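Aim 2, interim progress: modelling of the ribose-5-phosphate-bound target.
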Amino acid sequence: MKNTGGSRKAKRRAGEHAATAVEDGMVVGLGTGSTAAHAIRAIGDKIRDGLDVEGVPTSFQSRQLAIEEEIPVVDLDEVPGVDLAIDGADQIADGQLIKGGGGAHAREKVVDATADRFLVVADPSKRAETLDSPVPVETLPAARPVVEREIRELGGEPSLRSAERKDGPVVTDNGNVVLDCEFGPIETPDTLAEQLSTLPGVVEHGLFVDLADEIHVGTADDVTVERL
Ligand SMILES: O=C[C@H](O)[C@H](O)[C@H](O)COP(=O)(O)O
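Predicted structure of the complex, ligand included:
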């Protein structure tokens, strides 16, 4: 989607609104992407005002931003748990999500799923009646042909993710490739999520089923919160 001024404002409102849920002493999961970045910056502001929290980044990008924002950064194995995670989404339908537009969904899923409370932040363009965006599937590079075959067996059409300004495929923070898999409308995301999870060679897919607790959608001048 084109990042219009309106959508930028909406993302900012959503991110900043979700950041108001961050309280002193919390361990906070720091999501990836342009909307979660607004939440990270807002947490940085709160830290400069005296808030004491630790952040668990979900990607190289969110780690760098957290460091710039003076948020103490920790890994999952250094904390007893995550109190709250704030993360974006590429598509939202009926509380279920597709994530991984930035290829960060594997770490995001671990952090978001382990959090006591997972807040999704988005602009209105992310809402859909039915999930129908391509599903990002992070795959071991050596397993690509096998996974592609299995995806086709499931009725999907995989396409290796590449970037405009990089020769060769996009490589994730974990050293893997991403297959963007077109399935058309996904009527039963839970079934597809289970099927994808069982494929050997798949590290993680971008279907986040029954993980979100709240969805904060910003508009140019307001935020709506859906509790699930
Ligand atoms: O891998 C990336 C993540 O799942 C992002 O949270 C997702 O792509 C949404 O990003 P944005 O807020 O920039 O639309």
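Residues 5-19 form the longest helix (15 residues). The two ends are 26 Å apart (CA to CA).
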